[in-house]
Structures are given as C-alpha cells and as structure tokens.
Design goal:
The complex is a heterodimer. Helices cover 29% and strands 26% of the residues of chain A. By secondary structure, chain A is of the alpha/beta class. Classes of the chains: A alpha/beta, B alpha+beta.
Chain lengths: 268, 604
C-alpha cells in the first residue's frame, strides 16, 4: 500500500557551537543566533530517514518534509540533508529558536499539512521527532495529531513494521529500556520517533538534484508565520552546566575509563 | 550524473563565480538565458561541491580591500553580514621580545637594542606611517565563515546554483588530456579505504566545465598540477600556516569595530600576527608561520599563545574568552604559484590558481575577482554557444584576468618576498623596496621547496640545546607518543603557558571548544604516509610538530600515526614533509587527499 508520509522537523542551532542564552526585547534568545549554523533536529532526522525507508519499500509512497524556521536557515539546512533521502519540502517561514509555545508551533504545522495539495488522509502517516533538541517538551507532535484528528498516536517509537494485512506493529520506548508493542489497524496514524534503527544515509548527489527542484520553490513561497507567544513566560533560561577537563590517554582499559568517569561525575 | 558546470570548493573565488553567474543565468521574465545541455529545457545546471561540513566552515577572518566584493554587491551594507565592519583604523607594530627566547640574528639584535630605547611598557614600536601597499583603508573586516554563509545564501536563493557541503571531490576525471568532471569520494569505507557493508562508491559528476577552486592544498588542484605540470618558472615553494582564534573581548574593551592590528617581530621574527576587531566586542586574531621560517619544529599553537601574551596584545586580551579557533594553509607563492589556468574542460580560480598578492598580503578580494572573471567568461561562451575548450577559456577568462588591476598588482608583487630567502631583515627591506618602487627594485633570492631548506633539529638548536639532549628528548617523546616541539621550546627558554581555561587553553581544548572538530564515520583517512620505510628513517618529522590539530603523532616503528578525528584540514603537513619519495618524482611521502570533516565553526 502506498503511504503519504508527512515528516515534521525543525531546525536547531548546531549544538557544537557556543550557545549562550540572552534576554532580547521579545523574550529569551540565543546570543548571536543568526551567526550560528543550524542543523536538522536529530530527532526529526531519525523520523525523516525512517519515512524515506518506508516509502522506498512501498511503491507509490511519497514523503513531504514540513519544516518551520527562518528561510535563510532552512535553505542552509536543506543543503546538508537534501542529498540524503528524497522528499518534497513544505517550508514555513517562522522562528526556530525553541523559545516558542508548542501549541502555536503545532497549529502552524497542522495548517501547513492540511494545505498540502493531493494529500490522501486515508493513507496518511505523520512522523516527527518524539522530542526536540531545542524544546524537549515532547508535546508538539501530539498536538499536531490532535489538530489533524489523528487518534492513533505513538510516541518514543523505535520501530515500525508493516504487516502483510496492512496493519502496523509499533515499538514504543517505555521505562527500563524496554519497548511496548502496539498494533494499529493502519493509516492514518501519527508516530513521534525516538532514534529508530537506521543509520544516516550516505550523500547521494542524484537525490540532491531531484530534491532541489522542489526545495528552492518551496522556500521562495514559504508562508510567513508569526507566533504570538501570548501567555508564555520563561521563569529562567540556562544551559546545562559544562565542565571540561582534557587528558590524553592511550591503551587505558574501558573499565578503568568508566570508573574514572564515574568518580569524576560524583565529584560534582 | 551529468550537469553543465561542476565546481570544487566553496571559498571566496567560487563565491565570486557563483554570485556573478547566479545573477545572470535567468532573463527578467525568469526564462534561462541559455538552455542546459545536461538537462534540456532547464537552465544550466551549476553545482558546487564543498568538502567542509557546512558552507563557511573552516575559513579565516580577514581584512580585505573588498573592491571586487563591493563591485559584485553595489548596495552592500556591511551590517547585513554578521561580524563585518568597515576598516576604521590600522596599526602596524614591531614587537620586541620581552622574554628573550626568540631566535634573532645579530643584525636584528642590534636593531632591537636601539629600538628598546623608544619602547613603551608594551614592548612594541608602532610604525608612524603605514606604507600604501599595506593599507586597507576603504576595506572591510570580515569573518570569512560568516561572509561565505551570507554569500551562499544569496547565491542559492536565486535558485540557479547549488552548493553541497560535506561532499568532497576525490579527483578530476581526465580523459585524453581533457577534464570531463569530478569523482566524489567513496562513502562507507574503513580508514584505509577498504569497503564496508555500507560502501557507496564515489559518484562521477560529468560536466562540460569543471571549475577548480579547492584552495592551495586541494586534492584536485594537486592532481592537475601533476597531470599538466606547471608553467615554465612557476612553482609552489612558499607557504604559510595561519592559525587564529575568534574571541570575546573583555567587557570593558575600548577597541572599536574595524580596528586592524598587524604585528611582526615576535614570537619569532619571521612570524607575523594580526588582530581585527569585529562588531559585538569580538576579535579575530592569529599568526602566520611561513615556510621560510627555517625551524624544523615550527608549531603554530604554542607560538600563537606566546604571541597572544605579548604585552602589546595582552593589554587588550587579558580577560578575553575563546569562541572559535582554526588554521589553514596559505599559498604564498603568489603569481609564481600560478598553474595552467585553463585547459580543455577546466578552469582554475582562487588561491590555488595563484591569485594571492604576496606584497599586500591580500588574497580574498583577488580570489573573488578571479571567480567573477571566470563567470563573465562562462556567460560569454554560453551565450555564444562555444564549448569550454582551452582556447576559448584562454580568450575569455585568462584574457579578462590578464587585463585586470589585480593581475597588474600581482606582477609588481611577484618578487616582493624573495629577500626572505636570505633572512628576515633582508626580506623586510626587499618588501619595502618592492612596495615603494612599484616593483622596479627588488632583492634577489632563489626560493627553494620547504623540504630543501629546512635544517636538522640539531643544527637549528646548535648552541642552545645539545645533540645529546635532543636525542634523549626525541626518545622520550616517541615513547610517550608526544610531539617534540613543546620540550624543545621549553629548553629554548620559552616559559610555560599559564592556562586559564578561557583564552589560554590546551591545544586539545582549542580543538574542542574552538574548532569543534568533527570527522564523520565511513570515510578513509585523507593523510597517508605512502612510504613508511622512509618515515621510519626521518629524524625531523616536521609533519608532527607542524600539525595544527595534533592529529599527527609519533606512531609505531617511527612512522607517524594519523588521527582523522583531530584533523582540521589545514594542510600544513603536505608542505612540511621533508622526505622525498623513492620513485624520483620529487614529491614528498606524505599525501594529503580529499577528506571530510574538520573545523565545525562558522565564526572563523
């Protein structure tokens, strides 16, 4: 059965850069955020690669990638992911700082999905990251599903298997490193992915060329969205504490390394 | 895969090329000026493959006259580009040695003795007048990383060109002396290149025109130099490694954006320094270690730290915090390093094509100019329906380049640095003579390949460290897997660096906190020691001491070991290898190939 798979994925500042929260006139922000390179949210990346893999296995399937962010940053991120897997971009020109209200983001994403021409809701699978590297509220995808009227929702998904009868077997993460196995009759459904099981695909220039036929037009007609942020207040914003100690060792046993790291953590 | 034009490397030259091309590939009504040969019905398909993980990673902060850049963007407002500022003031300072550890000739020591009478508390003498050939009065201070991100956004926003980062090209496809495209590097391989289960062979990208803009140590530039040779009398003997930091200045810093400092004289006379002030209380600062600094253990990082702590700089930097860090090789042969600029199916632009002006120390605007000249030529040929043959490219691109202001200036500069072959003071006098006489008078010198001029470690430290002690240190460092340079600098009188965890950090922390160095899995090592037996016998191993990221370290049986996860792709190891191959080719045994990863910061 062909699927219409819509992947929601945000972009986030490259976590390897120096991230420093500051207070701007419009609320919390990251210092010099425009200067920072952006990357596809890793959780969304897993969802995208799983979607492409599923589409490849079911002829006639199609993947849309719905992403909200400043246009210039979206364009930049597309150049690093568009060689990976085939998709059609639906761009929303809006903030991606992470300092936004999840329900407003969900509304913008749901509106954009509903406006996709030719989308067959009977065969719809909505994918996204279970969490986000910039928000971590774990609420956005659930609200996207609610707005789209999708009652079959799964979060923390690591594996999706399509059975012969078209039903879906889904493994969701639960406590204790275990999975909950659920079965769903079929589409439509929403899956918030954890890490999945797929490695990052290699770059494929042909895929890149194909994607760019839709990426640039999508960016040019990206709908601007302004999030009101009403009622949203941040009590405090801080980065996780970092402490760096560098030491080069060679031929140290893994057990010894682990023991030393544990002692180092306990010191804090 | 077939395209019309494939470019390799997204630096300022390719930026100029794609900017000019992207503005002129479509008519006002949106239809293409010419049809693609690769994809009929479409505009010409123009693709650029960049090695680094993202557009703007791994390049350096600059001050540039920006004449050609401004011509490409007539409405340019520096405020649009993060970290850009118009040049406001310039200072050139000679730094005395407050430590007494640097190696200075008798002539220089004599001059220092006189100059010390005039020095201030900062142990420096500012030049009262900046020679016109060094001045950048109407120029711009830029972060090249930020500038290239901005340029990339503009060019790609047109929808007519594509830039794909994280996609190195391994080689040019050469058939019957004609370049017909490029081959991308293999994915899904072990360190030694052996395929794994995820093997994806590098795809061939065939194109009517291949534009080589992969810089001074790019794999394709090297390949074409071997394939087609160099023009008579041309060579790439002169190099430098530029190592830099981007820092947050202390909150109470009085330095204004657009302030430019250039220094010389310390930590060693041959090492030049710079500091450029960006908006937002940010500064780019660093040093250049040239190939004519004949020290076989010339590490840039330790020298950078000593330079930062010189009183002339430290008065501004005490309390600063490291934001970013990196290094790159600079091709310093200038016009003499110009290869064959065109051939059937290819053209070369930018630093790897010899655009750098070695008198003015300017390279970015000149590289940009070469890109715009090629774009104008390509548009002329496309519109005329003429193929990209050697003759047609010579008549359009090379002719434009030869008629340019930059070319005339490069002729003036051609012999400007020859005096450095005979020593630092002679070199300075030579540069001054060339600059002030417009190239009429020069000091004569015969440049030599770096590996043919480097003395042994014992000879370099003669009178300071005994051969016996060097031998002992060498054995100890080999056993510990450490580079020799720190030990030698300690013995030579350089004090330990008082690490503060903010600006003065360990070399490895500079990689992690500053360069954020990355090495994606599934790619082969790009630094290869082709003849281990030769490496075993090498006593100098400058490849280890020069390595900007400590990625090359003493290995088993005396053969250096390469750690790709630390490599920042500066390429300094390529021109610092001192051992020739046994095949008589004249090449050295260290091979620097195309590879992924490296610096992961766009603030450089």
């Amino acid at each position: 059965m062909p699927y219409h798979i819509v992947v929601c994925g945000s972009i986030v500042p490259d976590p390897l850069q120096t991230l420093e929260p500051v207070t701007s006139p419009t609320g919390p922000a990251l210092k010099n955020e425009l200067m920072l390179p952006a990357v596809l949210d890793p959780w969304a990346g897993h969802a995208l690669f799983e979607a492409a893999n599923l589409a490849k296995q079911h002829a006639g399937s199609k993947v849309w990638f719905v992403s909200m962010g400043p246009k210039a940053k979206l364009q930049q991120v597309m150049m690093t992911i568009a060689q990976k897997v085939p998709f059609e971009l639906v761009a929303i020109d809006g903030p991606s700082s992470g300092f936004t209200e999840a329900s407003e983001v969900a509304a913008a994403l749901a509106d954009a999905i509903q406006a996709i021409p030719g989308l067959d809701k009977a065969h719809l699978l909505v994918f996204g990251g279970w969490e986000s590297a910039s928000r971590g509220a774990g609420a956005t995808m659930q609200m996207v599903g609610e707005r789209l009227g999708l009652v079959d929702q799964f979060q923390g998904v690591d594996k999706l298997t399509v059975r012969a009868d078209g039903s879906l077997e889904i493994l969701e993460r639960i406590e204790g490193g275990k999975h909950q196995v659920s079965t769903c009759a079929g589409t439509p459904a929403l899956l918030g992915w954890a890490t999945g099981n797929l490695p990052e695909p290699p770059n494929n220039p042909q895929v890149g060329m194909l994607n760019m036929r839709t990426v640039m037009p999508a960016l040019q007609k990206a709908k601007p969205v302004k999030l009101a942020g009403e009622g949203l207040a941040f009590a405090s914003v801080s980065l996780p504490k970092q402490r760096r100690e560098t030491r080069i060792v060679k031929d140290m046993a893994p057990d010894d390394i682990a023991r030393e790291i544990v002692e180092w953590i306990k010191k804090d | 895969m077939d395209v019309d034009i494939v470019c390799v490397g997204f630096g300022p030259a390719t930026g100029g090329f794609l900017t000019t091309l992207s503005k002129n590939l479509l008519k006002e009504d949106g239809t293409p000026v010419v049809e693609s040969q690769a994809m009929p019905g479409m505009p010409p398909q123009v693709i650029c493959y960049e090695r680094a993980d993202d557009v703007g990673f791994g390049v350096s902060g600059v001050v540039t006259p920006a004449r050609r850049i401004k011509a490409s963007f007539p409405q340019l407002d520096p405020a649009q580009i993060p970290m850009a500022a118009p040049v406001k003031s310039e200072k050139v300072a000679y730094l005395l040695d407050p430590i007494g550890a640097s190696r200075r000739s008798l002539a220089l020591r004599s001059a220092d003795a006189v100059l010390k009478l005039f020095k201030g508390k900062d142990h420096a003498i500012e030049l009262p007048w900046i020679p016109p050939f060094l001045a950048k009065h109407d120029g711009l201070v830029l972060s090249m990383g930020q500038f290239m991100q901005w340029v990339g956004t503009q060019a790609m926003g047109s929808g007519t060109v594509q830039v794909w980062p994280s996609t190195p090209a391994a080689s040019a496809l050469v058939e019957d002396k004609k370049v017909v495209g490029v081959r991308l590097i293999d994915q899904g391989v072990e360190k030694n290149g052996a395929p794994t289960g995820a093997f994806t062979p590098g795809m061939d990208i065939r194109a009517a025109l291949t534009v080589i803009g992969d810089g001074p140590v790019g794999a394709l530039g090297q390949q074409l130099d071997r394939e087609f040779g160099m023009p008579e009398g041309h060579h790439t003997y002169e190099w430098a490694v530029g190592m830099k930091m981007v820092v947050d200045l202390p909150a109470d810093s009085k330095l204004e954006p657009g302030t430019v400092f250039h220094t010389f004289g310390f930590p060693e006379p041959e090492i030049f320094g710079f500091m450029y002030i960006h908006p937002g209380n940010i500064a780019s600062l660093g040093i250049f270690v040239p190939s004519w600094f004949d020290c076989p253990v010339r590490t840039a990082y330790r020298y950078l730290q000593h330079w930062v702590m010189h009183p002339y700089l430290w008065q501004h930097l005490n309390g600063a915090t490291l934001r970013s860090w990196g290094a790159k090789t600079l091709g310093e042969s200038g016009r003499r390093g110009e290869p064959h600029l065109v051939g059937d199916g290819y053209a070369r632009i930018g630093e790897g094509s010899g655009t750098t002006n070695v008198l003015t120390g300017s390279g970015v605007d000149e590289a940009w100019a070469s890109g715009t000249q090629l774009a104008d030529a390509v548009l002329e040929l496309l519109k005329a329906g003429k193929p990209f043959t050697k003759e047609n490219l010579a008549a359009t691109y090379v002719a434009r380049r030869r008629a340019s202001r930059e070319d005339k200036e490069s002729r003036v500069a051609e012999k400007a640095r020859d005096g450095f072959c005979c020593g630092f003071v002679t070199g300075l006098i030579g540069m001054g003579m060339t600059g002030l006489t417009g190239g009429l008078l020069n000091i004569w010198g015969t440049p030599k390949a770096p590996h043919k001029r480097l003395p042994s470690i014992e000879r370099y430290y003669r009178g300071r460290i005994s051969a016996e002690e060097i031998a002992k240190l060498r054995t100890e460092c080999q056993a510990k897997g450490l580079s020799l340079h720190n030990e030698l600098m300690d013995r030579a009188g350089w004090p330990a660096i008082p690490l503060d965890g903010k600006l003065l950090v360990s070399h490895q922390d500079a990689l992690l906190m500053g360069g954020k160095v990355q090495a994606p899995a599934g790619y082969a090592d790009h630094v290869v020691f082709t003849e281990p037996a030769v490496c075993e016998k090498c006593d100098v191993k400058t490849c280890i001491t020069i390595c900007s990221g400590q990625a090359i370290a003493p290995g088993e049986k005396g053969v250096p070991a390469f750690d790709r996860e630390k490599c920042i792709h500066c390429g300094a190891c390529l021109w610092n290898c001192t051992q020739e191959r046994t095949d008589g080719s004249g090449r050295t045994v260290l091979e620097f190939r195309a590879g992924t990863g490296g610096l992961h910061s766009a603030e450089n």
